[in-house]
Design a protein that fits this description.
Layout (H helix, E strand, L loop, with lengths): L10 H14 L3 H20 L8 E2 L11 E9 L3 E10 L4 E9 L2 H5 L2 H18 L11 E7 L3 E5 L2 E4 L16 H11 L4 E7 L1 H13 L4 E5 L3 E8 L18 E5 L16 H9 L7 H6 L1 H17 L20 H9 L6 H10 L9 H33 L9 E6 L1 H5 L3 H13 L1 H6 E5 L3 H21 L19 E5 L6
Parallel strand pairs: 2-5, 4-14, 5-8, 9-12, 12-13
Antiparallel strand pairs: 1-11, 2-3, 3-4, 6-7, 9-10, 10-11
Helix pairs in contact: 2-12, 4-5, 6-16, 7-9, 9-10, 9-12, 10-12, 12-14
The structure holds beta-D-glucopyranose (BGC).
Beta-D-glucopyranose (BGC) binds next to helix 6 and strand 10.
Pfam families: Hexokinase_1 (PF00349), Hexokinase_2 (PF03727)
Keywords: ATP-binding, Glycolysis, Kinase, Nucleotide-binding, Transferase
Family: Belongs to the hexokinase family.
Length: 503
């Protein structure tokens, strides 16, 4: 317990904390077992629906190489905000973008799904009427890629039924429905000439965008509010797809949206603590998204809060006093953990500020030991998350055999607040990855932030759909495909609209 070594905690308290820390420790052998289980679950999920991992075939059969051109709309639902973007792919690994953000209230997240989809259509309408977007040519609709960051059962590039919500969404009458159809219906009701062309998970968007800018990518992964990954699989291994799922020539490969947040729902391989169990029991989706609940930003703060309360109740922390905020479900945001771990000062001034100002803890109850304990709690929870994350990355390296027979770099495109901002998260992931795949492969693994996968990736998805459509109709693709490619050039523009388009 290095981070508590310099405290004046008594041996009984240290022993108490040590027992907690042990629960969060995952040793190398356990990490390897997790990777092996991933590989088994990949295979099962590719063979049959309804397995531990959804392994969703995305109907994306090619990765971009940076030469793609065209202008498309992208709509992004699944993170903090709803975003509408107009993306112009310039074909030389360059893009131009305009975007507007719209707030998604809790009422929309938990109300009737039709209201949510109406709101999405209204936001597209608002974007088109307030942004300098040239109209499509006569009779041509604008092509839109929807980044929808939830598990769907996808049956075509533009069709997919929601399996279940994650990350705090629970709008009614959406599960089992085709989300693209719901969006298209909402747009059609408003006579908005936009065609929903491609349904893209954010991880798929991340993979596509990273490939566009880097020329290749083995994995697109999100470590943010939620967690998930997408990779390119050999099509012959996707045996669960019904015969006839493709007209004409079968593709050589297909991007698979793993939906790895659901890994170990059966609780076989990840060691769990009482704090995880409490979180799960009190969540809106108990027994679902087990891996995500140990890893992602939506949950890490809540695990820490559970630990802190337990310590308060055992009179080890804050002289046994809590606060209204600390007692509130999800009252300790993962962002605070990140700020706490960023404070490297001896006395922990920022930690104290967070505890008093954000968490409402009485300053008098906070001694130096308390500061050390709070830092320690954040460290053990985030440290485990980083370690567990490495297992999914290692499993993909094994599954795709991408490191074998070459000395190439293995490009991994990532996005999400944890990997982008949490101090030491990537280092922790890399450290465990090294033990899992060996030092030379770990060194060759280039983890890079994907540039706006949800916007640029959705545009690349829409372009892929348009290409496939034109190929089926025997119409050649011109240069500058897509619509409105005569847009004025300009820097990215972002505006935030507080429920302007509310239904
Ligand atoms: C969703 C995934 C998504 C991930 C990251 C998870 O909760 O199920 O579809 O890719 O979050 O946003």
């Amino acid at each position: 317990m290095t981070s508590l070594a310099n405290t004046s905690l008594n041996p009984a308290a240290l022993d108490f904390l040590e027992r907690i820390e042990r629960q969060f420790h995952v040793d190398d052998a356990q990490l390897q077992i997790i990777v092996d289980q991933f590989l088994k679950d990949f295979e099962a999920g590719l063979n049959k629906n309804g397995q531990a991992l959804p392994m969703v075939p995305t109907y994306v059969t090619h990765l971009p190489d940076g030469t793609e051109k065209g202008t498309f709309l992208a709509l992004d639902l699944g993170g903090t905000n709803l975003r509408v973007c107009q993306v112009t792919l310039l074909g030389n690994q360059q893009v131009e973008m305009k975007q507007s953000k719209y707030r998604v209230s809790d009422a929309l997240k938990t109300g009737e799904a039709v209201d949510l989809f109406n709101y999405m259509a209204d936001s597209v309408d608002h974007f088109l009427t307030t942004t300098d977007v040239a109209p499509g040519a006569e009779d041509e609709d604008l092509y839109l890629g929807l980044t929808f960051s939830f598990p769907v059962d996808q049956t075509a590039i533009n069709k997919g039924k929601l399996i279940h919500w994650t990350k705090g969404f629970m709008a009614t009458n959406a599960i089992g429905h085709d989300v693209m159809q719901m969006l298209q219906d909402a747009l059609d009701r408003r006579h908005i000439h936009v065609k929903c062309a491609a349904l893209i998970n954010d991880t798929v968007g991340c993979l596509l965008s990273h490939a566009y800018f880097s020329g290749g990518c083995i994995l697109g992964a999100i470590f943010g509010t939620g967690t998930n990954g997408a990779y390119v699989e050999d099509f012959t291994k996707v045996t669960k797809l019904p015969k006839g799922a493709f007209e004409g020539t079968l593709p050589k490969s297909m991007v698979i949206n793993i939906e790895w947040g659901a890994f170990d729902n059966a609780r076989k391989v990840i060691p769990r603590t009482i704090f995880d169990n409490k979180l799960d029991r009190e969540s809106i989706n108990p027994r679902f998204q087990a891996y995500e609940k140990c890893i992602s930003g939506m949950y890490l703060g809540e695990i820490v809060r559970n630990i802190l309360l337990y310590l308060v109740d055992n009179s080890i922390l804050f002289s046994g006093y809590s606060s209204k905020q600390l007692n509130t479900h999800y009252g300790f945001d993962t962002e605070l953990m990140s700020n706490i771990e960023s404070d490297k000062s001896d006395e922990g001034r920022t930690v104290r500020e967070i505890l008093t100002e954000k968490m409402g803890i009485d300053d008098q109850s906070i001694g130096p030991n308390d500061i050390a304990i709070v830092r320690w709690a954040c460290k053990i929870v985030a440290g485990r998350a980083a370690k567990l994350s490495s297992c999914a990355v290692a499993a993909i390296i094994h599954e795709t055999h991408c490191a074998e027979g070459n000395e190439d770099f293995l490009d991994v495109g990532v996005d999400g607040s944890l990997i982008a901002f949490y101090p030491g998260f990537e280092d922790g992931l890399r450290e465990s990855l090294r033990t899992l795949v060996g030092e030379s492969i770990e060194k060759r693994t280039r983890i890079g932030l994907a540039k706006d996968g949800s916007g640029i990736g959705a545009a690349l998805g829409a372009l892929g759909a348009l290409k496939a459509e034109r190929a089926r109709a025997g119409v050649p693709m011109g240069d500058g495909v897509g619509l409105n490619h005569h847009l004025p050039k300009g820097l990215a523009m972002t505006e935030m609209h507080p429920e302007t388009a509310a239904a």
